[in-house]
Recover the amino acids of this structure.
């Protein structure tokens, strides 16, 4: 019997890519398929897979060849309200798939519909291309296959030396994330830290992961010797920034409990790495 191959191009940021890969680790077992991941660095995450993680036994990592960049995955185009534009893109993708040897193409709109929908589409298909930043289901076991690369692991180990015995994790998402800013104000996290300090002031600490240096400075000045941060490069437009984002994610994952921001995938992915308890703080 000819092998079934799933070629997955994960898109968007680090958390979205990890969730997509994790879910298709599960989906490949349903089809008895081989999973091949094409990790393409772009402006959303401009770094290679092996600079962040070790090779996985669950999938084969393929080189990000130029041919994969011909597919259109921008939502403004693929989900355009004008039927004629969607029709043109659909025809274009069908021709491109045939030229490149794929039997079908799955994108965000298909993946969001879940496993049963995908199984129907993929029936009797041999070479399936998936381009998505979404997950077809929440498969937490898949996250254990993301083992940090040596550079990331060394930085995590060094940073954890500053952790206390009882360390909670706090993720405060800011910058351009309007939903997190509106629904998860900094005051909620302050209240949580103060509540812990009343119970266990000696051995308590809080690891803060945030994309806003002003928030980090404020909380560290208010709770000196309690709030710990990782001295990172802010921003995701440099290699150092990408590596530091992965380091922060593993540090957050290694705390006793995570308090996260509303509508942000980062803390949700950190929770899944080790199964850490999580609570989203919101008004």
């Amino acid at each position: 019997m000819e092998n079934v191959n799933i070629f997955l191009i994960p898109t968007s940021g680090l958390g979205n890519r990890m969730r997509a890969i994790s879910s298709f680790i599960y989906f490949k077992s349903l089809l008895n398929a081989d999973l091949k991941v094409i990790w393409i660095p772009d402006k959303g995450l401009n770094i290679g897979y092996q600079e962040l993680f070790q090779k996985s036994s669950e999938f084969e990592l393929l080189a990000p060849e130029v041919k994969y960049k011909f597919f259109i995955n921008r939502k403004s185009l693929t989900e355009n309200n004008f039927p004629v534009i969607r029709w043109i893109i659909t025809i274009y993708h069908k021709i491109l798939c045939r030229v490149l040897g794929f039997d079908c193409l799955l994108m965000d709109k298909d993946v969001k519909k879940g496993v049963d929908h995908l199984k129907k589409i993929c029936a009797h298909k041999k070479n399936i291309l998936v381009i998505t930043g979404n997950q077809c289901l929440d498969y937490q076991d898949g996250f254990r296959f993301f083992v940090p690369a040596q550079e990331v692991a060394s930085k995590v180990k060094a940073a954890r030396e500053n952790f206390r015995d009882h360390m909670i994790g706090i993720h405060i998402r800011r910058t351009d994330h309007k939903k997190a800013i509106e629904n998860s104000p900094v005051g909620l996290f302050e209240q949580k830290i103060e509540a812990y300090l009343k119970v266990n002031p000696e051995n308590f600490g809080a690891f803060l992961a945030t994309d806003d240096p002003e928030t980090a400075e404020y909380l560290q000045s208010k709770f000196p010797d309690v709030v710990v941060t990782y001295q990172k490069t802010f921003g995701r437009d440099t290699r150092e920034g990408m590596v530091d984002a992965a380091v922060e994610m593993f540090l957050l994952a290694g705390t006793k409990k995570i308090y996260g921001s509303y509508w942000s995938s980062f803390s949700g992915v950190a929770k899944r790495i080790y199964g850490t308890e999580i609570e989203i703080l919101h008004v």
